[in-house]
Write a structure and sequence with these properties.
GO molecular function, one term: AMP binding
Helix content: 25-40%
CATH architecture of the largest domain: 3-Layer(aba) Sandwich
EC number: 6.2.1.1
CATH class of the largest domain: Alpha Beta
Shape: globular
Strand content: 15-25%
GO cellular component, one term: cytosol
Enzyme class: ligase
GO biological process, one term: acetyl-CoA biosynthetic process from acetate
Bound molecules: 5'-O-[(S)-butoxy(hydroxy)phosphoryl]adenosine
Length: 647
């Protein structure tokens, strides 16, 4: 066992109590209080969530708290509300009119601040522009934007008129964008002329043009100016937002929407070759994201809250936009890369803006560790009072580094476990109450009953690794996969009937702490982003040189997992370092840079079962240890093991 592993082992028994100074002012300040309220929430979920839902504004109260179903759940049935009204207008009535809603810094150093009043006005104007261009209730709008205020404004503008947004991460290629446009049925895209990343311009509008040229579904493209770079504008299809906003009304009535009205679709990778359009509701989603933000981040009126996620991911939806704004919080966002122009950009931002809550990913923290303490040393981070981690398991020693060097042992860390499908955080410490164990997401949030079970669904004793499942519905649970009822039922509710199947492995320790060990399906978690093996394989075989491909994830010290692709070539093609480069670039073009394989290895045959299924497990083992230990009796080509040993 290496030194590092030894150290990690010793951290496993460590328990760190919330600093007294933090607990004193916390919403939930003892573990006893957490336990009592948790029990209440599980004993009578209807009563519990009914009370929580009163914290947001309803135009019409709901008649029934929920339909009680796990599959196709409905919450706050019969109630009507507007999500943008809850995130904006209702704060204007109190004393938050001039409170900062949104503070932004661009990668190039530009900065903007919007008060709640200003943000409301901008959202109304954008909503009116959307309406002018024919967008109405339940229409899908694709948002393909850099992390600038207008991206959030557009999301809220959709919510205001009952349109369904489909945010596509700006790192995705035009092909991935097209796939998401087509599946979601969008006819209008909102984009920008570009965005800044490591000093370069991401050509967003050009990629939209490429996508739109491959289908006649896109009728309109609304373009925000960000970089000032030259872009092509097609008459009758493309419109500059700056021009379109002139002359529209400055107020837009918030649409009165049913609690179950879809708020957004967000695509995420799964085990199939196609990304899944995860559909979220309005009422249940808002109630739980708002409540969990308040409790887990222990929000205070004077906080400046920074979640570093992009709005292209669920974390950006729930914990950059909807949860914090529903609470009337001040949020901070930053457009660019953490290492641009230098490795201390994040620390500069925390110091300059006096950020109080900092929520980021283990991948980012591992990069900070790699860059070295000298980048932190000269910055005053004393404004920080709470830290958070999300997206992938955090190694105990990475947790300790974050705790010591960023939080200076004064800030609790909330290691929050959840998924695109769950809508909000389901397992996490409460910062003022929960004794933390580095590497453990600790205990379930209110109203959530997770369990670790075996293949048959039987609960496992402490220490035994099994499947993480959730018993019973919760308000922010996704409502389906867009236009894919079969997979919705198959993926999440069939393997173990009666519960929600997360796709994660986990165990509970003797004290009931949950430890998430990672995905147990063919989903690979690279830098906190989900990538389906099958999607990368499809991209590889779409290249003329590739006959077959199998992609696996192996542990990576920085990215959590790294992609390793095994391929066989078609007749007439030879393995070479040039071809490796060509194939890597091809994957980037097909999917986006986040799916670039770290390694490509050539084989003359892939291991398959007799029914023809590629056995990725074997390839993973080979990548990890160069030999095979698992069961290989169902393999078609027993020669494979000898062959693979030679590469
Ligand atoms: C998968 C969900 C919603 C968060 C952003 C990613 C992994 C997420 C943790 C954590 C261990 C985590 C799981 C999960 N994951 N948070 N705190 N500890 N693993 O959302 O893209 O839907 O991915 O991310 O494997 O299933 P996502």
């Amino acid at each position: 066992m290496g030194d590092q592993q030894c150290q990690e082992r010793s951290y496993l028994s460590l328990k760190i109590y919330p600093p007294h100074s933090f607990s004193q002012k916390a919403l939930i300040d003892t573990q006893q209080k957490y336990k009592a309220l948790y029990k209440e929430s599980i004993d009578n979920p209807e009563l519990f969530w009914g009370k929580v839902a009163q914290e947001i504004d309803w135009f019409k109260p709901w008649e029934k708290t929920s339909n009680g179903e796990l599959i196709h759940p409905q919450w706050f049935c019969g109630g009507s509300l507007n999500v943008s009204y809850n995130c904006l207008d209702r704060h204007l009535k109190g004393n938050r009119k001039s409170k900062r809603a949104l503070v932004w810094e661009g990668e190039n150093g530009e900065s903007l601040t919007y008060s709640y009043e200003e943000l409301t006005k901008e959202v109304c104007i954008t909503a009116n522009v959307l309406k002018k261009h024919g967008v109405g209730k339940s229409d899908t709008v694709v948002i393909y934007m850099p992390l600038i205020p207008q991206a959030i404004i557009t999301m809220l503008a959709c919510a205001r008129i009952g349109a369904i947004h489909n945010v596509v991460f700006a790192g995705f290629s035009s092909k991935s964008l097209l796939e998401r446009i087509l599946d979601s049925g969008a006819r209008l895209i909102v984009t920008a002329d570009g965005g800044f990343r490591r000093g370069k311009i991401i050509p967003l509008k050009t990629r939209v043009d490429e996508a739109a040229s491959l289908s006649n579904q896109i009728k309109k493209v609304l373009v925000f100016k960000r970089t000032g770079s030259a872009v092509q504008m097609i008459e009758g299809r493309d419109y500059w937002m700056e021009k379109e906003r002139a002359g529209v009304e400055e107020f837009c009535d918030p649409a009165v929407l049913d609690s179950e009205q879809p708020l957004f679709i967000l695509y995420t990778s799964g085990t199939t070759g196609k990304p899944k359009g995860i559909v979220h509701s309005s009422g249940g989603y808002l109630v739980q994201t708002a409540f969990s933000t308040k409790m887990i981040f222990d929000l205070k009126e004077e906080d400046l809250y920074w979640c570093t996620a992009d709005i292209g991911w669920i974390t950006g939806h729930s914990y950059v936009v909807y949860g914090p704004l529903a609470n009337g919080a001040s949020i901070f966002i930053y457009e660019g890369a953490p290492d641009f122009p230098s490795f201390d950009r994040f620390w500069q931002l925390i110091e300059k803006y006096k950020i109080t809550i900092f929520y980021t990913s283990p991948t980012a923290i591992r990069a900070f560790i790699k860059w070295g303490l000298q980048w932190i040393a000269n910055h005053d981070l004393s404004s920080l009072r709470l830290l958070g981690s999300v997206g992938e398991p955090i190694n105990p020693e990475v947790w300790m580094w974050f705790y010591r060097h960023v939080g200076k042992e004064k800030c609790p860390i909330v290691d929050t476990w959840w998924q695109t499908e769950t809508g909000s955080i389901l397992i996490s410490p409460l910062p003022g109450a929960t004794p933390m164990k580095p590497g453990s997401a600790t205990f379930p949030f209110f109203g959530i009953s997770p369990e670790v079970v075996d293949e048959q669904g039987n609960p496992l004793p402490p220490g035994r690794n099994g499947f993480l499942v959730i018993k019973g519905p919760w308000p922010s649970m996704f409502r389906g996969i867009y236009k894919d009822e079969n997979n919705y039922k198959k993926i999440y509710f069939s393997r173990i009937p009666g519960v929600y199947f997360t796709g994660d492995g986990a165990y509970k320790d003797e004290e009931g702490y949950f430890w998430i060990t990672g995905r147990i399906d063919d989903v690979i978690n690279v830098s906190g982003h989900r990538i389906g093996s099958a999607e990368v394989e499809n991209a590889l075989v779409s290249h003329p040189a590739v006959a077959e491909a199998a992609v696996v994830g192996i542990p990576d010290p920085y990215k959590g997992e790294a992609l390793i692709a095994f391929i066989t070539l078609k007749e007439g093609y030879l393995a070479s370092t040039e071809l490796v480069q060509v194939l890597k670039d091809h994957v980037v073009k097909e999917i986006g840079s986040l799916a670039r394989p770290q390694e490509i290895r050539f084989l003359d045959t892939l291991p398959k079962t007799r029914s023809g299924k590629i056995v990725r497990r074997l390839l993973k083992e080979v990548s990890l240890q160069g030999r095979i230990t698992g069961d290989t009796t169902t393999l078609e080509d027993s020669q494979f093991i000898d062959k693979i040993g030679k590469i």
